[in-house]
Model the fold of this input.
Amino acid sequence: MTRTEARTPASAAESAAEQTRVAVSTVIFTLRRLPDSETAGVVLPLVRRTRDPHAGLWALPGGWLDVTEGLDAAASRTLAETTGLAPSYLEQLYAFGDVDRSPTRVISIVYWALIRPDASTALGDRGDGSDENVQWFDAASLPRLAFDHNDIVDYALWRLRNKVGYSRIAHGLLADEFTLAELREVYEAILGRRLDPANFRRQVENSGTLIPTDRFRTGSHRPARLYRYNQDVELADRGPLDSRH
Amino acid sequence: MTRTEARTPASAAESAAEQTRVAVSTVIFTLRRLPDSETAGVVLPLVRRTRDPHAGLWALPGGWLDVTEGLDAAASRTLAETTGLAPSYLEQLYAFGDVDRSPTRVISIVYWALIRPDASTALGDRGDGSDENVQWFDAASLPRLAFDHNDIVDYALWRLRNKVGYSRIAHGLLADEFTLAELREVYEAILGRRLDPANFRRQVENSGTLIPTDRFRTGSHRPARLYRYNQDVELADRGPLDSRH
DNA sequence: GCAAAAGTGTTGAAGGTACACCCATGT
DNA sequence: ACATGGGTGTACCTTCAACACTTTTGC
Done:
């Protein structure tokens, strides 16, 4: 937190407009059964850079901000370009703007998003536009990424773990109807620890956010009741920002 | 959350660099004994705009981002230019970038800051650079502000109220040594409700964040012990972002 | 002595954790 | 029948809110 001398805003504006570019990137999360593991884990898609700086390294999907589009729209667009899917959740994460984070001055407005694993192609290593340069990675063991993207993913994961505790974003990783075991799996994957099924059941039942259906998921054992989310309950999430737009 | 068609990042970059400017503004909070009130309230400084758009209206202090300075530095600088003081706390709030939030396209990276009320000039209506165009307002009853700044202040207040619950930012509104009553006043002003002195004492004592001194604040009644914050305790706050830099 | 704030003790409600236990199904 | 996950009951512990109570000062 350095404190520089005052300068006239007008002149600063000129140079900024000439040399500062604004990018929008998104950390996209979904769940997947990991190899060599009984449990599901958090995975995210990365894009291989084809030009310098950091050509060859993996980076977060993103692109330049267009003058005619809002920040949210730019995040949605770059997200769609990469995965071909609409996110079930999208929220701004942070604006990164250190002078030395890139050879040229770039301000990155970073978003984070959730995608439902059942949305077919999201889980395969390639969708329709089968692309060698997009791959899904285990969030727990990433390679070295371009720019400061490792820091950014760390922060996004921290936000995800935090948020799962006090909001119902887990919803964003499930289909419309789900069993309590499936919901619990989401929490366990994000938090990285097992939860007591009995206590978990009571907590989410008492929260009033779930509506039991009369349908059951039949499997290899006793059928489990299917639930859906109660849309009425608007959990305090992003505060005043939720009601804008 | 609209979804636009894909376009080539390169061409978008050009137009963005030509027509998008990046501003940095800061919502600065401190506490002050409000007129017509027994209790302290949250106040913030605003700047009267001297040119269009919104000439004459009050706005958040800020300025254009210089190419050579980081976002944090830009926030510190504009903050110093307005109040002449260093903040006791500074954190990025959000990046606002709707296309129509200003006649020309402006991305505003907004910060929020805390200032210790004891820092003399902060509480007076004017400091050394006695300035008619900077005034402190009660955060609870603001006039109509320029641009979307009313929304921004609302969000900053929400973040402040939230954060006071799980971090020790109240520290940022107090001198080094303080009584429990003074600390409680801070919480009461931010949360807007009275707290039980007995329970409040136990909660903060058990949190382990306070170190009792052997000094006392003498006043009109029984002297109150002075405390200071325990610097060792690093409460989970901004996660991985705290350890960067 | 009295008012008022500092500080302590006690109680009951509420929520979380651990874990024993019963239920319903496929094999 | 039995293994397994679905689902219920309960006991214990911690935290929090309410409020009665004691202590120490200025006046």
Summary: Chain A touches chain B through 56 residues (CB under 8 Å). Chain A has two domains: 12-163, 169-229. Confidence is low (pLDDT under 50) at residues 1-17, 120-128 of chain A. Residues 179-181, 197-198, 201-202, 219-225 of chain A lie near DNA strand D (CB under 10 Å from a C1').
